[in-house]
Amino acid sequence: MKLARYELNGTIGYGTVSGENLNILSGCPFGEYSETGDTVALGDVKLLAPTTPTKVLAVGLNYRSHLDGAPEPDNPEIFIKTPSCINNPGGNIELPDGDDDVHAEGELVVIMKKQTRKATPEEAAANILGVTCGNDVSARTWQSNDMQWWRAKASDTFGPIGPVIATDVDYTDAQLETRINGDVVQKQTTADLIFPVTTVVSFISQAITLEPGDAIFTGTPGTTTALKAGDVVEIEIEGIGVLKNSVVGQ
Description:
- This protein is mainly β.
- The protein has 2 domains: 2-47, SH3 type barrels (Roll); 49-249, Fumarylacetoacetase-like, C-terminal domain (Fumarylacetoacetate hydrolase, domain 2, Alpha-Beta Complex), CATH 3.90.850.10.
- It has 4 helices and 20 strands.
- The protein has helices at residues 121-126, 140-145, 150-154, 197-205, and strands at 2-8, 11-18, 21-27, 33-41, 46-48, 56-60, 77-81, 86-87, 92-95, 102-104, 106-112, 128-135, 138-139, 159-166, 175-180, 183-189, 215-217, 225-226, 232-237, 241-249.
- The strands form 3 sheets. Strands 1, 2, 3, 4, 5, 6, 7, 8, 11, 12, 14 and 17 form a 12-stranded mixed sheet that branches. A 5-stranded mixed sheet has the order 9-20-19-15-16, with no helix packed on it. It has a 3-stranded antiparallel sheet with strand order 13-10-18.
- A hairpin with a 5-residue loop joins β3 (21-27) and β4 (33-41).
- It is globular, with a radius of gyration of 17 Å.
- The mean pLDDT is 98.
């Protein structure tokens, strides 16, 4: 199943994607919901980020191809993005003043279904609603120079996610591809994650209680590419779809 969050005539809701149509739901997928029987064309709605998380976490250095000679970490290297950085499918990525080395990072993003605290990997798996595409936009100069990554990783618009939450994708082995202006700049399978999704969720939950709708970026593969105004970034993950965002200057 593919779940989409949408806006239509000022109303925000959820639906399930069926071809080019959206089957409207009553309620939301993080609680009780049912089909209303109403259907609209996908082209008639604005797709929104598929969740409004209470918190956004991310993993650094979770593909061997991204280590750049560094040793593998002993545990998942977790950092925090902010809910305010979340960006919609089709939303603009705004290049900030003060850092001209901003990169796209294509990532698999986990969306939680249930409150999760001190979970085993097996329990974590049962508490995951599904996965979506994400772009962990990163300002490299700030990332290198600042003690904390608050603006390097969590500036406004730096967390595009979407277009849908896929609930039945095998996220242990899904092909991830990042394209800039149609050129492939990253391509790897999630089977190459150093720490699998359920290990990451379990590890985080030992210290931080995860709530329904919370989002976890699971890491980016290979090398990354700097962005410039006018670029179009696409993150495609097998079984989910394509997250597309344009890059603009401030």
